[in-house]
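With this grant's support, we have settled on a layout for protein records. A representative record follows, to show the layout.
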Amino acid sequence: MKQIIECVPNFSEGRNMQIIKEITDEIEKIDGIVLLNVDAGASTNRTVVTFAGEAEKVVEAAFLAVKKAAQVIDMRYHKGEHPRMGATDVLPLVPVSNITLAETAELARKLGKRIADELNIPIFAYESAAFLPERKNLAICRKGEYEGLAKRFAEGDLPDFGKNVFDENVAKTGATACGARDFLIAVNFNLNTTSTRRANAIAFDVREKGRPKREGNSVVGKILKDENGEPIMLAGTLKGCKAIGWYIDEFKIAQVSMNITDISACALHAAFEEVCRAANERGVRVTGTEIVGLVPKKVLLDAAKYFLEKQQRSIGLNENELIWIAVKSLGLDDLKPFNPKEKVIEYLMETSVGAGLKTSLTDMTCKDFAFETASESPAPGGGSISAYAGALGAALSTMVANLSAHKAGWDDRWKYFSDYAAKGQELLAKLLHLVDEDTAAFNKIMEVFSMPKTTDEEKSRRSKALQEATLYATEVPLQTMETSLQVFDLVKVMAQDGNPNSVSDAGVGALVVRAAVLGAYLNVKINASGLKDREIAEKLLSQAKEIAEKAENFEKEVLKIVNSKIQ
């Protein structure tokens, strides 16, 4: 699964749009990168750029952007209202999907080191990438701003990467804070009131900072202060959340406006539920939710699963169904239609990157897929069909699990079947990915044959590339075999324990999964025959043979169970 991250660099230029475009042009040079937003501010003389893509590509685009900013921005002449210390002031990487914050922090550190080594720009690692605890705080990294860098370096306040020398290059570029942070969700909760005061009260109830403590715990009493003269605060109930109440004239309602700065500490659905609770205690009702900007797909999927589990319903639904549940549960369409294609980062990337590209096999109709397979082209072929057969087996098994979770009289078993349905959806997604991946592996081999082979060096490079492509074309159907074999665990349980009215569906699932395994086995064997490294080839063939034997035994076991129940 692709690791997707977001990058939100802040550049110290907000007035000259030509300079800003030169920087964003560098970002867009990298294939697969989607430029999500460019927010230039004249008074701050600062531009916030947001782009996303696969992790390695984002890191490369970030480096190019920093390099260009160093060329076109001269900090010796920069003036603006916002704190800053460099041409690229801050460079945060943000995990979006299939990557942890810790992994993202490691990428930020490597990026920071490369910037320091190749561009001679001092780098302070901050937030989750910080080496020093105090440097988690951006304000500490940026203390004294650009004008204070020379003094800091002279006093031994060393950057994490690069030299502490304020030379001519650093005088022009300044320093950069490079780090990793969690995704920030900006969200407004709609209230059935026009009272800003009540909206504020709800916000103070839930935000981490809370509200000032007053004499007698009243709402109008004197604010109590500590020995330093600072207000004593009563903490709110939500960690990693900032919130305030306001009135929106456009919709004639008050809202609780919130920034969720740590989605690992507070999920969107948890914030929604807590705002609902606090609002209810004050006689107010939350009517819906407004997401400002973009949101990672996982945030909505997690919300959908949370609400389904509250209803004791199966969470093993497909992605589109889960997104719909999230929209309705959170009331995301309360004020205006909610279009996931425009609000979910991964969907927006698919739309942007996929524009003008050939439709993937799994995006086709069943008829078009069949016609494509029947054409004169050798791909898609048996490998893709095998993966699709495995996906159909996973789909049938998941269907039985969902029907079983919802069967009348089986209410106490909903969680048991829901867990299996969720596992089925996971296997289904993997196998659908392998449908396209198998064709992609074949195309890699075809690409090798177009490589030049005139000189000995070219022949050697071509031979090496062919072996690498052949190995990959062997490994992909082996993955199909391994994943399809896992489906048998689900098929067998559904045949044995699932809704008896659907036992034949479990039987059909077993048949197509066996076909998936044995079909992929044929592809492993024919591709492994082209590997010169016979030790690797024999190892792969041995693994494949063992899986094939297990699949045949599984099929017999499942059909025995099925036939015993329908005779």
